[in-house]
Amino acid sequence: xxxxxxxxxxxxxxxxxxxxxxxxxxxxxxxxxxxxxxxxxxxxxxxxxxxxxxxxxxxxxxxxxxxxxxxxxxxxxxxxxxxxxxxxxxxxxxxxxxxxxxxxxxxxxxxxxxxxxxxxx
Length: 121
Hints:
Blueprint: E1 2-9, E2 14-20, E3 27-31, H1 34-45, H2 54-64, E4 69-78, E5 81-88, E6 93-96, H3 98-108, E7 111-114, H4 116-120
Parallel strand pairs: 4-7
Antiparallel strand pairs: 1-2, 2-3, 4-5, 5-6
Helix pairs in contact: 1-3, 2-3
């Protein structure tokens, strides 16, 4: 998946991160919180805050521990809530919110995947 960017749904002013299927035509809008929207937008624009944001800190911790984020998998959509997994180089998989996963993936250059069932839905 490619991160198209952060948008705001009107009239609710709810932030959305919009993903597009790499080499395909399907899009995946995920409703997110304002803090995560800011973190994603900062990463896309290459903005470096004066002090690390949470996702910058997570990236720095992974580097210090010599563990890589290998991939982000958006795994499910249940009752309007998206789920994701972070897959690390040491074999560990951690459940996470897609918004946090995407913000971290952008900072680490990690590939984002989404299940076909979610894109079809």
